[in-house]
Design a protein that fits this description.
76% helix, single chain, mainly alpha, globular
């Protein structure tokens, strides 16, 4: 498959995630469980029959731990989706690259470069515009924004923990153990909460299947394929378009409308995130 076409398919697939979650009657955490579990159920036979389960102990631990964090990320993001617009929630959840840069600088003492700090400043200005300066000063903003921010932080941690693991194992092997860990973790959480796991209407089951097979399985397999064939920076910037596409779906299927400050703030935040992806070109001899 053409890598660019694969990336486009992946972006469209994942952009439906907030729509499926909002349209269904399942709780946000149950939706997170089925998103991951149903994708794992379909992927598992391929991995088992194709003998793609071989993995080193260290990589196994990283994959499972990453799965737990990823499951928490999706669950928290889903909660956010129930409290603010799908567009704004998706946008804020995409702040993960900013968190990665900040954590790398604070924990690993890794210099992030001028463009990262410029992009971070622009993204913060966009967030202030989005929330409203007076609301920010008075700490009077929707709790859904807080959940979306926490989700973006969890995804940043997930990125940092699993970074480099695909050099050792294939994408499907990683997804098998990653989603298995996430599914078990989310099932335990749902059990503790005593959430309804089975008694849903037919439309809700269809939305759960959609978020699992379209958004999780198809979306991330096609995106990972594109990542392996295209420049990482271009893929990262292209992935930001999921916010725009998700916003279009939200208007079409959920009847959402954004205020002027939300539109301006969203554009500024997206611009800030995009800037953080750019790096100074390095000479080939130095690599």
């Amino acid at each position: 498959m053409n890598p660019k076409a694969s990336l486009l398919v992946g972006i469209i697939c994942i952009s439906f995630s907030p729509i499926f979650v909002r349209l269904g009657d399942a709780s946000p955490i149950v939706s997170a469980f089925y998103r991951i579990f149903l994708a794992w159920v379909v992927l598992a036979p391929y991995c088992i029959i194709g003998k793609k389960l071989k993995i080193a102990k260290k990589d196994l631990l990283i994959a499972i731990l990453g799965g737990v964090i990823f499951g928490a990320d999706i669950a928290i993001w889903n909660i956010s989706l129930m409290k603010i617009s799908a567009t704004i929630s998706t946008l804020v959840a995409n702040l993960a690259p900013v968190w990665v840069g900040l954590l790398s600088y604070i924990i690993l003492r890794k210099k992030s470069g001028r463009n990262f700090w410029i992009g971070t400043a622009v993204a913060i200005i966009g967030m202030v515009t989005l929330v409203g300066f007076n609301s920010l000063i008075r700490l009077q903003f929707n709790i859904g924004l807080v959940y979306a921010l926490i989700a973006s932080f969890f995804y940043a941690v997930y990125i940092m923990i699993t970074k480099g693991i695909l050099r050792n194992i294939s994408t499907v092997t990683f997804m098998f153990y990653n989603m298995l860990g996430a599914s078990i973790f989310m099932l335990i959480i749902c059990g503790i909460r005593q959430d309804n796991m089975l008694h849903f209407s037919t439309p809700t089951w269809l939305y759960l299947v959609g978020v699992g097979l379209i958004c999780q399985l198809t979306g991330w397999i096609t995106i990972n394929y594109a990542i392996n064939h295209l420049e990482a920076t271009k893929v990262s910037i292209a992935l930001l378009s999921q916010t725009v596409i998700a916003g279009f779906w939200a208007m079409l299927f959920l009847g959402e409308k954004l205020d002027l400050n939300e539109i301006i703030g969203s554009v500024v935040v997206l611009g800030g995130i995009a800037i953080t992806f750019f790096r100074k070109r390095q000479l080939t001899a130095s690599t």
